[in-house]
Amino acid sequence: MIDKFQSAQVVIEGAGPVGLACGILLLQNNPDLKLILIDKNPATDDFLANADTRGIAISEGSKQLLENMGAWIDNAPTIHQVHVSQKGHFGRTVMDCAEIAQQALGHIVRYRDILLSLRNQLRYLESNTTSFVWLRDIDATFSMPSISPHTCLIHADGGLFHEQSAKDLHKDYGQSALVGWLEVKDVKPNMAWERFTEDGPIAILPHHQGQNTKNFVWCAPTEKIDLLTHLPDQEFLIQLKKAIQLPIGQFLSVHQRKSYPLGLNIKNEIIKDNEVWIGNAAQTLHPVAGQGLNLGLRDAYTLSRLLNSTYTKSTVDGIDELNRTLVEYQKQRSRDRQTTIRVTDLMASVFTSTFFPIVIGRGIALSALQWLPPVKSLLARQMMFGQR
Questions:
Q1: Contact (CB, 8 A) for 305 and 25
Q2: Strand order in the sheet with 106-110
Q3: Residue 196 above 80 pLDDT?
Q4: Which of 90, 168, 221, 364 has the fewest CB atoms within 10 Å, counting from its CB?
Q5: How many other CB atoms are there within 10 angstroms of residue 255's CB atom?
């Protein structure tokens, strides 16, 4: 096995959705690539029975990437409209996919479904190559053998905010997100609501079981989330309806409440020599705009494209060529990363402020989006496709 590491061209550390996607994109275009994937999960998919079931927002651009990988989930519910407003104050905007000539603004996929789909696609590629090594069931005691400076080491082992050590920019919002799903009645299908309250944003999203169910994400101070997590079901539904204060239908029951802390954790320099950081290993975001996984998938797409171009050249100038490739990767990802990080942090911070001038400014901004279609379309396209 040591020989495998010493001769590897690429090593990916971490097999969550972004690490798996990166491996697929590399092997699809270069099946002879000497690639090693380090995966803490077992070879079988039995563990997914107890895996994360929360709904993840997938942009239209990410859907296209996943389709090209052969890893899209066909029954993922679509979002045709997004309603954004602030509770107790003026200002709202409604985005519609028809306004930008798209079939959908986004989709909702369960985390475990996308993980399974990516694992299955990588297994298929594994069966058609002899150069790929998938190391499974790797625990925390694993010590990676030394690798050549010619080998690209991709760090894709991000995890959730509270599981990470602090990076260059580390901000604890003092909030947690409570997620779960609702049985509903008379709620418009294919629509998402983002309601900003003084405690934080609340999102109501489509659910894979159909139009009579919805995902929810409720962000608020951690102490309040702790209380909400343990409320009796009917009392919780009363509090949720009261917090949203929108006539969007009836909430009949709640299921699978689970919370996790929120924060911003950013690595400024995402390359060093032959190493590169992608996905949550490079940036962990507040879920307010649903951009975390989408940004990570764009990382994987850009990096794999550049590395495949490098490793398929007839002559490769060793270390210097790899270093130039990673410098180009950081350059190409800079604008998209910075824009998405800033927008997400701004929304997480500004929309919880009760300072009156900021409240008025929020209302003006939301109203301006509604009445300035070119600006709204520009924002929608950034959220859907980023800059890749």
A1: yes
A2: 55-59, 106-110, 78-79
A3: yes
A4: 168
A5: 11
Q: Determine the topology of domain 2-167+265-385 in CATH.
A: FAD/NAD(P)-binding domain (3.50.50)
323-381 pLDDT, tens per residue?
A: 999 999 999 999 999 988 988 888 777 666 665 566 666 666 666 566 566 655 665 55
**Whole-number Å distance between alpha carbons of 214 and 196:** 18
- Give dist(CA 276, CA 282) in Å, integer: 9
| End-to-end C-alpha distance for the chain, whole angstroms | 35
CA–CA gap between residue 329 and residue 28 (Å, rounded): 19
DSSP 55-110: EEEEEHHHHHHHHHHT---TTPPEE-EEEEEETTSS-EEEEEGGGGT-S-SEEEEE
Say which residue the tokens 């690798």 belong to: 147
Task: Please provide residue 285's backbone torsions phi and psi, each rounded to the nearest 5 degrees.
Answer: -115, 160
Q: In terms of C-beta density within 10 A (0-12 exposed, 13-18 middle, 19 or more buried), how is residue 59 classed?
A: buried
Q: Which residues pair with 176 in a beta bridge?
A: 220, 261
**106 token code pair:** 């986004």
Residue 173: closest CA among 365, 338, 347, 340: 347
pTM, two decimal places: 0.89
Amino acid letter for position 23: G
pLDDT at 288: 73
Per-residue pLDDT, 375: 55
Q: Are strands 250-266 and 10-13 parallel, antiparallel or unpaired?
A: unpaired
145 phi and psi angles, rounded to 5 deg: -60, 160
**Measured between alpha carbons, how far is 215 from 227 in angstroms, rounded to an integer?**
20
Distance CA 356, CA 272 (A): 44
Task: Please list, in sequence order, all residues whose beta carbon lies within 8 angstroms of the beta carbon of residue 172, skipping any fewer than 6 positions away.
Answer: 261, 263
Residue among 385, 288, 122, 291 nearest 280 (CA): 291
- Here the tokens at position 381 are 């396209």
The DSSP result for 144-163, as a single string, is PPP--TTSEEEE-----GGG
